[in-house]
Amino acid sequence: MVKAVLTGTDDQGGAVSIPKGDIVFIRESYRSGEIPGRTKIDFGTAAADEQEAYLTDSLPTVLKRLGNGVSVARLTTPSGTPVHVVAARVEALRAPQSWHHPRARTVLLARGREIQVREERDLVLRRINAARPEKAKPVA
């Protein structure tokens, strides 16, 4: 069986192929600390194979290529950047702690990562569960 992949182009003009089943979230890159003007894809697990890719392709183009096979929930990072979280990867939600960003209202746990968002827990639950595949157990 062939794995479905998301393809794109990196900074050196090379082709990037990421298994769709490994994607955790997609967002535009931050202006500081990351490669600006790129689309960041976070994939793998928090173990040794945690990875990220910065594509030259725009966020709308990447989301279009992702297609209907992967359901995402659109949320907002504490800095105000939209983040598209793969709903099936979210394992749990929790309240932010003192070390999290001061604008974070909810922390999503997904494949060993913490994804901080501005939205309140109830709204995050609604968006994640609405985007999850019908057979998937809802996040509580």
Envelope shape: globular
Percent of sequence in beta strands: 35-45%
Radius of gyration over alpha carbons?
A: 15 Å
What portion of residues is helical? Answer: 10-25%
Distance between the termini: 33 Å
Low-confidence stretches: none
What does this protein look like?
With 140 residues, the chain is mostly beta strands. Helix content is 14%, strand content 36%. It contains two helices and ten strands, in the order βββββαβββββα.
What's the arrangement of secondary structure elements?
Layout: E1 5-9, E2 15-19, E3 23-28, E4 39-43, E5 51-55, H1 59-66, E6 72-76, E7 82-86, E8 90-94, E9 106-110, E10 113-117, H2 121-131
Antiparallel strand pairs: 1-2, 3-4, 3-7, 4-5, 6-7, 8-9, 9-10
